[in-house]
């Protein structure tokens, strides 16, 4: 039977071959918002330039804000130029791409709006030949997700794929719920309307090239897995640091905070890829089974000693070079008494044979000293200090750094003898950089891979219902406790620094230090 997901170049699942998806229409709800302009449409244009968008393709942007098709295309033209940031001569076919974009202004919180969507889709579909395949993308505020899903169901837009005929899929942006109960409820609502294999819960970190490479690094090489365990690894740090502040997203962020925004999804996804067991085969079910298994093994945080395991902070006024950075509480639309955390550090343990007693330190924040996402694996020290006679008091433990962004790559730090007649030792690094090895850095937004995958029907890099719920199960008690404690226990840090002093003290108590960048 022909694969209805793949249009031309390959009829197989051979991932070495360029796979161009079958024709389809993509409907974006919340299309007047930031995400569409910054990430989604630039990523689609990136795919278009690479010849990975099928001939039969169109986008319908849906939102309340009134735009004509032309005005929407202009807005998207600016977005593509600004956020894809290609060399000036590389936008040759942008006009051709923009002709595939349309816009409907209506109140999609009411189910009546969906008949207009149906009519418009039917009209435009014929011209573009999308063959009836539909991809719905929820880029709206999360409060609107349940209503949109229910209206899509009521309007008959949710039919599952049958016998390789048309497909319908739905992509749901984060945050998926705001705690365990709301995530379960949202899963219930969505799975009432769509089947699990039609649902794509997106976490854009999983589309980053370096994140995907974690699996290849671990399971495509024979030499690393033997020491990827408690016998050789002292601890692991996962840092997802941002230099930007809350920008113009305060109304969302005030409700969410750092843990819901970055840890529940991005940081835990990274943790699961670094620590999961090897799947027996490379497919969506096997990989996602292992990730869920890992999540089940994370030890709940002890609420009676939470300060030993978690730190939360908020930025106050600070400086970056000679630019003054405002305090979080002084940002537009933020309450002057806000207790929302903009920084968090957590210590987690994974109770299984591989990782027993190895601490995993997760750290993320807004308005930190620089933008960097990195996983640092600290190995145990050499067991015997052979070079005592050289005056050396201790020897640096080996360190593997996985640079997720910027400067994608990896480096391994080890000790070497300084050349010369004396015996002196100092750390050196062995480096792999994407641009040096492959001649170019990976694509810029991570959405390219994910949008292509969901058009192809490959859900491996999307989050399954069990993972989402397990992540909330771990974090909801902590968030509840912080909520009860209110201002008590919230630390402060100057914008442009590496977080509150309490976060350093937290590491020092364990005789360790945060990796410096
Ligand atoms: C998003 C968060 O998921 O990730 C934002 O909502 C954050 O607050 C962004 O800025 C960071 O993504 P990236 O790819 O720039 O690291």
In short:
This protein is of the alpha/beta class and about 525 residues long.
Structure description:
- The structure is a single chain.
- A hairpin with a 2-residue loop joins strand 9 (318-320) and strand 10 (323-325).
- The protein has a nine-stranded mixed sheet, with helices on both faces. Strands 3-2-1-4-5-6 form a six-stranded parallel sheet. A two-stranded antiparallel ribbon has the order 9-10.
- The model is unreliable at 7-12 (pLDDT under 50).
- The chain has two domains: 8-173, NAD(P)-binding Rossmann-like Domain (Rossmann fold), CATH 3.40.50.720; 207-258 and 302-444 and 477-508, Dihydrodipicolinate Reductase, domain 2, CATH 3.30.360.
- The chain is globular, with a radius of gyration of 24 Å.
- It has 13 helices and 17 strands.
- The termini are far apart.
- With 517 residues, it is an alpha/beta fold.
- Residues 174, 242, 261, 373 line the site of 6-O-phosphono-beta-D-glucopyranose.
